[in-house]
């Protein structure tokens, strides 16, 4: 092949020399195994005093080992010929610190000594005290209902006497034995007892003032009881109701039942109100004793 013709005008341009590279700075080597624990010693002493005291103890042992000169075999004098065989000390054996040296190392001023665990007093235990129950309020209803039987019997006797007197004043002959078996004697008595029981349940431990109005209520029941007997006796119907009502209302016998019932209910109501006042006082004393026991019992705070 023919040689390539060189261009006479082309010339090779030399490249500029490369700048010198600076040598790497050599830093002294630092033994992190020795520097790092010393730098972190204050933080370790504050966070974990027991670990810091152990580190100081190991450091003191290391310093003591460095201060102890190493003994070589050349420095050990040869035993005399006549001397008994004495075992040579094992120089390579590690030195074990004795308890006395450990105690001495722990008593070095400035060394952190782990504090003994604090003994806390036992916490308060929970005390469970059963709270006293409030005393039940006594009532006067049962006594009043039972006393009403005696009041109804007395009303029946008084009503029987009023019927005899009314027969004498009107001139109608009445047989007392037949009157004792007649319904006109027992119907007002039953109505009286019904009115007494209703008012006793309402009044309970009320005072005498309540029985002043209650006696009128019971007397009205006796009055209506005799009116009911009269309507039944004559044969009640809606045709003669308007004619018989004015006659029966103005009759003296229902009025006598009203008067007798009112008087008996008032006097027996006085006995009921007297016992009611005594029961009120007993209830107040029992409640005051309950309040006193609540105030004197020990206070127990929840969560203790």
Write a structural description.
This protein has a domain at 141-278. Helix content is 59%, strand content 0%. It contains 10 helices and no strands. The chain is rod-shaped. The model is unreliable at 1-5 and 99-108 (pLDDT under 50).
Radius of gyration (CA) equals: 61 Å
Total helix count? 10
Give the number of DSSP strands: 0
Overall shape: it is rod-shaped
Strand content: under 5%
The succession of helices and strands, N to C, reads HHHHHHHHHH
The mean pLDDT is 74
How do the strands and helices of this protein lay out in sequence?
Elements: H1 32-39, H2 41-47, H3 49-67, H4 99-106, H5 141-170, H6 176-180, H7 183-203, H8 208-234, H9 241-249, H10 252-296
Helix pairs in contact: 2-3, 5-7, 5-10, 7-8, 8-10
List its salient traits.
single chain, 304 residues, mainly alpha, 10 helices, disordered N terminus
Question: Quick summary of this structure?
Answer:
The chain is mainly α.
